[in-house]
């Protein structure tokens, strides 16, 4: 059965590091680096948590089916090695145990591998990355953290279909990072340009010819090599001017975020040329369908890019592990244990509770015995990850074990029933009060002995989203 993109979503973290802050902190003057910003993942976010947020948006209200049981996860900043990260995303989406979930990681080109595999098998391609550069480097200034996800299903229900694809591969040393290093290194720019441009011309030429078009309406260029990306953008300019905004380079998520941004504004029946130049070149030609205008993502990329809260450079370095600061005067939490995490998988990763069939009381975490009517084993599962709620009461802990104190803990009443105490992420105390509307976000509570403790937090709902 021919497959196409039936849903998509993008996620940009809330925090922003401005170029003025970078310039002032590094002694080069507040205006030396311009007036741009870069997106920064919070201390409790990583490639997995951002991938969950993008995938939730790509699925929307769609019920899981045999197509979404396949999940391909691409990142060059995996939270785990020697263990799949895709399985945590699969569990957080409450997709059950059937299906195939695997990583295609290690380099930005893995994003194209995930897209092509999902397009062939059906399912989700989740592209996510957290980009770190050495202080004062171009990677630090021009990087971006974020994620995008694409759901592939029946072409008859597609928002966009793939008309043609072509690839060219070559082995040359342009950018690299060995295991254990946080930042990449790169070779001289002119050498990379000499290697990339012929590969781009070859792949793009074959893709356009196979699609039967000479020029696309929209052109996306994704590459860690800035010069080659600029030349390709000028050479293969689309009929519609680009409006990507100053996102920066997002690694494995870059092509996906830019494709999502085009889908946010493209019209029906328009063509999209996606050029990804990383360790070779991959070119894809897509055509949008009449379904796209009425089924765009609820969170446009450019709208997310415009929002955000500014971050101090010292805080950014602390979150990235580059600045070792005095820890909180509290005992460190214990390492999460494997057996209880496995037993509570649906609750811990999917935020799945139970609702009594007899009286309707919602239990968080799930329970066999109803607290209200005391019936036993009269429960049905209820997933709350997509539900909003209201703050019933909250506390502010300024001595908690947290890389970003103070910690805000709120008792949340979920819409439709259920109450639980959750940490509030990405907010200051003056942004939370009784009655504040919140939504759920998959986060990392802490990491001990190399084990990440993933769970859910609450984030404040913006007024326009409520």
Automatic annotation (TrEMBL):
According to the entry, every stretch annotated as the ChsH2 rubredoxin-like zinc ribbon domain falls at 351-375
Residues in ChsH2 C-terminal OB-fold domain copies: 388-443
Top-level taxon in the UniProt lineage: Bacteria
Please list the residue ranges that the record marks as compositionally biased, kind Basic and acidic residues. 323-335
Which InterPro entries does this chain map to? Answer: ChsH2_C, ChsH2_Znr, NA-bd_OB-fold, Thioester_dehydratase-like, Thiolase-like
Q: Where is this region: Disordered?
A: 323-343
Q: What is this protein called?
A: OB-fold domain-containing protein
UniProt organism field:
Paraconexibacter antarcticus
């Amino acid at each position: 059965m021919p497959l196409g993109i039936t849903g998509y979503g993008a996620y940009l973290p809330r925090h922003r590091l401005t170029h003025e802050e970078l310039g002032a902190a590094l002694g080069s003057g507040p205006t030396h680096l311009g007036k741009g910003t870069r997106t920064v993942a919070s201390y409790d976010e990583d490639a997995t948590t951002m991938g969950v947020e993008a995938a939730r948006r790509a699925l929307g209200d769609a019920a899981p089916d045999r197509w979404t049981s396949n999940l391909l996860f691409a990142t060059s900043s995996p939270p785990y090695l020697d263990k799949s990260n895709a399985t945590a995303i699969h569990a957080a989406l409450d997709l059950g145990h059937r299906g195939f979930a695997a990583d295609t990681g290690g380099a930005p080109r893995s994003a194209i591998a995930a897209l092509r595999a999902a397009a062939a098998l059906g399912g989700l391609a989740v592209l996510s990355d957290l980009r770190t550069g050495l202080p004062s480097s171009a990677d630090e200034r021009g990087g971006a953290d974020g994620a995008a996800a694409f759901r592939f299903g029946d072409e008859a229900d597609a928002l966009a279909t793939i008309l043609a694809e072509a690839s060219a591969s070559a082995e040359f040393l342009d950018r690299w990072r060995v295991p254990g290093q946080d930042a990449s290194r790169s070779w001289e720019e002119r050498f990379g340009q000499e290697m990339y441009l012929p590969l781009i011309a070859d792949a793009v030429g074959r893709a356009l010819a196979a699609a039967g078009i000479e020029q696309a309406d929209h052109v996306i260029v994704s590459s860690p090599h800035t010069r080659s990306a600029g030349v390709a953008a000028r050479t293969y300019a689309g009929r519609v001017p680009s409006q990507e905004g100053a996102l920066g380079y997002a690694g494995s998520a870059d092509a996906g975020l830019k494709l999502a941004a085009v889908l946010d504004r493209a019209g029906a029946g328009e063509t999209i040329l996606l050029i990804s130049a990383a360790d070779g070149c991959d070119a894809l030609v897509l055509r949008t369908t009449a379904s796209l205008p009425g089924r765009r993502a609820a969170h446009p990329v450019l709208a997310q890019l415009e929002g955000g809260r500014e971050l101090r450079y010292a805080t950014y370095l602390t979150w990235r592990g580059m600045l070792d600061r005095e820890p909180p005067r509290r005992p460190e939490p214990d390492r999460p244990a494997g057996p209880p995490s496995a037993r509570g998988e649906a609750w811990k990763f999917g935020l799945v509770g139970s609702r009594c069939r007899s009286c309707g009381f919602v239990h968080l975490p799930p329970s066999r015995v109803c607290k209200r009517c005391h019936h036993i084993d009269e429960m049905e599962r209820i997933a709350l990850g997509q539900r909003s709620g209201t703050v019933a009461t909250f506390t502010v802990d300024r001595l908690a074990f947290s890389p970003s104190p103070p910690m805000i803990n709120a008792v949340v009443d979920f819409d439709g029933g259920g109450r639980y105490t959750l940490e509030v992420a990405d907010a200051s105390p003056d942004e939370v009060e009784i009655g504040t509307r919140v939504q759920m976000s998959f986060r990392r509570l802490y990491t001990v002995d190399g084990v990440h403790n993933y769970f859910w937090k609450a984030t404040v709902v913006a007024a326009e989203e409520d």
